[in-house]
Amino acid sequence: MCIVAVMSVGFALLGLLESGPRHGYDLKRSYDQRFGQGRTLHYGQVYSTLARLLKNGLVEVESEPGDGPDRKRYAITSAGVTDVATWLSQAERPEPYLQSTLYTKVVLALLTGRDAADVLDAQRAEHLRLMRELTRRKTGGDLADQLVCDYALFHLEADLRWLELTAARLDQLAGQVTGHAAGQVVGQVHP
Amino acid sequence: MVNSANDPLLAADDLHLSFGSTQALNSASLRVYAGEVLALMGPSGSGKSTLLHCLAGILTPDTGRVTYAGRDLSAMSDSERSALRRTEFGFVFQFGQLVPELTCLENVALPLRLAGVGRRQAQGAAAGWLARLEVADVAQKRPGQASGGQGQRVAVARALVSRPRVIFADEPTGALDSLNGERVMQLFIAAARDTGAAVVLVTHEPRVAAYSGREAVVRDGRVREQEYAL
């Protein structure tokens, strides 16, 4: 996850440089404005990313007279343009979503005789709380805000659909989990 | 926290209702506060629409009590209940609620006309609400000539025109695509907030429920109500 985020910042900065050379400060501002969504870049991250891009020959520096990092203007190289094009043309790997903490919690609640419906209810309330916040932000925002919030809202909605489906099947799941447990799992949980 | 100093505008207490051998409500209780937007969620067949109809005085529970502004709905006569529905409540359903023979403007003016308001004044108010819901251009069209999204906005305008204190909305965007549904919800909730009306919103769509201030979940005829934090 972290690796993906760091990689994306590099490509995003490169992509932003395609429209023309910029200072690190401008680049950070432009990134934050377009893609930050409440999580802005640190200067350190901008300059370390630019240093890496420079080392890999994807950007070059146009220095201006004087000292300090803001005297440097970064320009994308033709290798950088090729890298951006390749990155854009490659599909992102879909998340497999197979290791779900919520599923684990539901099964453990059933195994230990706790109320699994409470687990789901608490999660529904928390998901809806965040969805309300995003909906408010979307309602007051421009198209970019709307699209970014919708991306999050559709994912959260998918979680909630799963949650409702699971809530409707809790009795069935309890039967399977505890039946299975009688042979093996409960013995491990309560030795 | 439930704010006990703030009495609910509408309350259901321990409702039971069966249709034949099917128990639709099984000790359902719910509070609706003035001006709030409450989402009533739950799987199909959980009893959420039945509960909505009981709250609105359309269905009478077998046992239990619904009170509106301190008045017991079951103690009212049929005509008192329908007067209440006409003057204090507004309704938005999934579809099929507009009178097909009337223009959209006449549809929106209808509740006011039924309440005895003159034609000119009623249509003036209706035109204002159509504009507020961004469908002024369909005023002279019949509902069949408007798109699904436009029709729902007209229905919302009609629900709001008599300035009700509670609006009951049963899957109001259920027949619309995401984009149209979103716009209807944005306009609907903004307009309801402006008038101070409470909204009871039945939906199984989380993105629609996200327009509410809190949710209550109906399952097997019972309600799990999120506590109200002021």
Summarize the entry for a quick read.
The complex is a heterodimer of chains A (191) and B (230). Chain A is mainly α and 191 residues long. Chain A has nine helices and three strands; from the N terminus they run H-E-H-H-E-E-H-H-H-H-H-H.
Please state the structural category of chain B.
alpha/beta
**Shape category of chain A:** elongated
Strand content of chain B: 25-35%
Uncertain spans of chain A:
183-191
Distance between the termini of chain B: 8 Å
Main sheet makeup of chain B: 6 strands, mixed
Structure report:
The complex is a heterodimer of chains A (about 190) and B (about 230). Chain A is mainly α and about 190 residues long. The two termini of chain A are about 35 Å apart. The C terminus of chain A is likely disordered. Chain A has a 3-stranded antiparallel sheet with strand order 1-3-2. Chain A folds into 2 domains: about 90 residues, Arc Repressor Mutant, subunit A; about 90 residues. Chain A contains 9 helices and 3 strands, in the order H-E-H-H-E-E-H-H-H-H-H-H. Chain B has about 230 residues and is an alpha/beta fold. Chain B has a 6-stranded mixed sheet, sandwiched between helices. Chain B has a 4-stranded antiparallel sheet with strand order 2-1-4-5, covered by helices on one side. In chain B, helix 3 runs parallel beside helix 5, helix 4 packs across helix 5 and helix 5 packs parallel to helix 6. Chain B is globular, with a radius of gyration of 17 Å. The N and C termini of chain B lie close together (about 10 Å). The mean pLDDT of chain B is about 90. Classes of the chains: A mainly alpha (about 190), B alpha/beta (about 230). At the A-B interface, helix 6 and helix 7 of A face helix 7 and strand 9 of B.
